[in-house]
Amino acid sequence: MDGNGRWAENQGLERLAGHKEGAKSVQDIVRAAREIGLEAITLYAFSSQNWARPGAEVLGLMNLLRDYLFEERPEIMENGIQLRAIGDIEKLPDFVREPLDSLRNDSASNDKMVLTLALSYGGRESIAQTARALAEKVASGEMKAREINVESFGQAMPTAHLPPLDLLIRTSGEQRISNFLLWEAGYTELCFSDLLWPDFRREALYASLEEYKGRKRRFGLTGSQVESGDLAP
Ligand code: IPE
Ligand code: MG
Questions:
Q1: % of residues, the chain, pLDDT over 70
Q2: Considering the domain boundaries, does residue 231 fall inside one?
Q3: Alpha-carbon span 83 to 85, nearest angstrom
Q4: Are strands 113-121 and 167-170 parallel, antiparallel or unpaired?
């Protein structure tokens, strides 16, 4: 979700006004995703690197997150959305972590859609943490080094609860991944939108999904193998 700051600057407003408007896009996109019937959506709300932004902006973002958790709670519960989080959650201030933990617990058995918030999240960080956890299991004898493979590594990742990542959308015209789901995006379709995140509303999501539908996914196979049927992993 990129481009809140530029959106605000374009309007002659403070950056925080862009983050506020961006929260409206979050609401609209999550609603649309649920209505379409998407199984899961993961939002990159705050990166491990975002902590280095000016203190006032970090605090403003944390306040918005807390507001989001309180304001969206009824809709999340009423619509059977399961809220999850990935990232270094323990780094979040108590006034965010507490409502987050409470909504994660209360929505744990909801099964209509999984909404995962990536908070204090970095793709490299999550791979390194998983590698460390597996190394500790090997060191303690709980696991053998030869048991580490793509399958078991993926199962140890914080995103193991999610289906394979089909589509990754980056807004604001930047064509980079910026430390988002690096491991998970191995065979993901990438879609870049020139819209700034506050302007990215449901019509833009529909357009990205249309673009995705036109992609031919081969997963390393040849086109004719895929066309002939059941060889895709
Ligand atoms: C939102 O956009 C991303 C967050 C960190 C919340 P930015 O704040 O990165 O906006 P730009 O890139 O400065 O326009
Ligand atoms: Mg940015």
A1: 98
A2: no
A3: 7
A4: unpaired
Residue whose CA lies nearest to ligand 1 atom number 9: 2
- Per the structure, the complete domain to which residue 44 belongs is given by 4-226
pLDDT at 229: 81
Nearest ligand to residue 53 Cα: 1
Q: What is the CATH number of the domain that holds 109?
A: 3.40.1180.10
Q: pTM above the 0.90 mark? A: yes
Question: Total domain count for the chain?
Answer: 1
How many other C-beta atoms can be found within 10 angstroms of the C-beta atom of residue 164?
Answer: 13
160 part of a folded domain: yes
Ligand 1 contacts CB of residue 60 (under 6 A): no
Indicate which atom in ligand 1 lies nearest the CA of residue 3: 14
Catalytic residues: 2, 50
State pLDDT tens for residues 183-223. 999 999 999 999 999 999 999 999 999 999 999 999 999 99
Q: Say whether pLDDT at 231 is over 80.
A: no
Instruction: Write out the H or E segment, with its range, that includes residue 113.
Output: strand 113-121
Q: Is residue 204 in a domain?
A: yes
Any ligand 1 atom below 6 A from CB of 171: no
Atom number, ligand 1, closest to the C-alpha of residue 15: 8
With beta carbons less than 8 A apart as the criterion, state whether 1 and 43 touch. Answer: yes
Judge residue 121's burial from the number of C-beta atoms within 10 Å of its C-beta, 0-12 exposed, 13-18 middle, 19 or more buried. buried
Asked if residue 233 has pLDDT above 90, the reply is: no
- List pLDDT tens digits, range 126-167: 999 999 999 999 999 999 999 999 999 999 999 999 999 999
Residue 42 lies in a domain: yes
